[in-house]
Specification:
The structure is a single chain. By secondary structure, the chain is an alpha/beta fold. It has 2 domains: 4-185, 2-Layer Sandwich (CbiD-like); 190-378, no CATH class. Helices cover 37% and strands 24% of the residues. It contains 13 helices and 20 strands. The strands form 7 sheets. A 5-stranded mixed sheet has the order 6-7-8-12-9, with helices on one face. The protein is globular, with a radius of gyration of 23 Å. It starts with a strand and ends with a helix.
């Protein structure tokens, strides 16, 4: 893939996701099946708006089906799936226009509620499923085919690769997840991300801003736009580097900094984890369970939280037990404590607002509302 970005003065090559691999393989297999021809490459438009021309590997033809593979390329982003082949086996069915997607060897199965897919389903997330479906609709229309198609996505190497990921802990067993919301992998080195945050803060400080708004990523951007009416371009994206971002804000001379983010990431702050990448810890269930216990939850409620993979499911358990508000008040208090007690922030005023896509705003630390008001005035 010849698409590049520049981060911290470095030219880095983009890659493409396992979701793009699955969709491209499915599209190629469908074309070869329905048009009875051989493809060496296949073209795919990603949700990011970047088109890909990918090499088709290991084509196999059978009675009513075609299978082929696409090799994953992560570009300059380190990724355990780089170089892995994702396969799609596409077969005709007699159900008009129906497209059924499932996972085969190397694709994990969901065993816990609260993930992107229901329990028992293949761990092929919503965006890749949509990409596959849209690609196959296009092929069937072009071919004038009115029947149905069955798609089986596999990645045999995923059985072993998945052991190096958090999938088993999340309740995804037997293989990898097929992921990606944009279809494109943006290379992000730690040094490059921190350098970008520093540069953005310097630019805003030079323009006279005294209070800065932080968001971790896309969820935060959507929330401040849709719920708070704030242009996401006015915020600084921290990615996982939340502690670094607050320290850099103090270094740049800001008086206050407010973080707005999804509870799935921000809950880690309550445990003092200020870099929220999973390699530094995934203590979401432990934090919710501990605060639930302090708020009077039964042992059964605590156990159910510990068995949950996603924070929205943990919140649902707390809601059922009548403890969501109390637990979130306790969690946000600790979030505020750890943000305010970093040695590197000096007199910087700190705050955080956290939300979920199901329950909306869940809580705010002390002083967060005042910081938000200051940000609105400056904007």
């Amino acid at each position: 893939m010849d698409s590049f970005i520049t981060r911290d003065g470095k030219r880095l090559r983009r890659g493409y996701t396992t979701g793009s691999c699955a969709a491209a393989a499915a599209k190629a297999a469908a074309i070869m099946l329905l048009e009875d021809r051989v493809l060496e490459t296949v073209w795919l438009m990603t949700p990011r708006g970047i088109g890909l021309t990918l090499g088709v590997r290991e084509t196999v033809r059978g009675d009513g089906y075609v299978s082929c593979g696409i090799v994953k390329d992560s570009g300059d982003d380190p990724d355990v799936t780089n170089g892995m082949t994702v396969y799609a086996r596409v077969e005709r069915t007699d159900k008009p226009r129906e497209i059924v997607i499932d996972g085969g060897e190397g694709i994990g199965r969901v065993t816990k509620p609260g993930l992107d897919q229901p329990v028992g389903a293949a761990a092929i997330n919503s965006t890749p499923r949509r990409m596959i479906t849209e690609a196959l609709r296009e092929v069937t229309e072009d071919a004038g085919y009115a029947g149905g198609l069955s798609v089986l996505i596999s990645a045999p190497a995923g059985v072993e690769i998945a052991k190096k990921t958090f999938n088993p802990r999340l309740g995804i067993v037997g293989g990898l997840s097929i992921l990606g919301t944009t279809g494109i992998v943006e290379p992000m080195s730690d040094e490059a991300v921190v350098g970008t945050i520093r540069t953005e803060l310097s630019m805003r400080a030079a323009s006279g801003r005294k209070t800065v708004l932080f968001i971790p990523g896309n969820y935060g951007a959507d929330f401040i736009k849709n719920e708070l009416g704030i242009d996401p371009e006015s915020a600084v994206t921290t990615s996982n580097f939340i502690g670094d971002a607050f320290s850099l804000a103090a270094e740049a001379g800001f008086r206050g900094a407010l973080l707005v983010g999804h509870i799935g990431k921000l809950v880690k702050l309550a445990g003092g984890i200020l870099n929220t990448h999973s390699r530094y810890g995934d203590c979401r269930a432990e934090i919710f369970a501990a605060h639930a216990g302090m708020c009077g939850a039964s042992a059964e409620v605590v156990r159910r939280i510990m068995d949950s993979a996603m924070t929205d499911n943990m919140l649902a358990i707390l809601e059922e037990a009548g403890l969501r508000e109390a637990v979130m008040a306790s969690v946000t208090e600790r979030m505020g404590f750890h943000l305010a007690h970093q040695k590197t922030i000096g007199t910087l005023s700190t705050g955080a607002v956290t939300f979920s896509n199901v329950y909306g705003i869940l809580g705010a630390t002390s002083g967060a509302e005042e910081l938000l008001e200051e940000i609105r005035k400056e904007l």
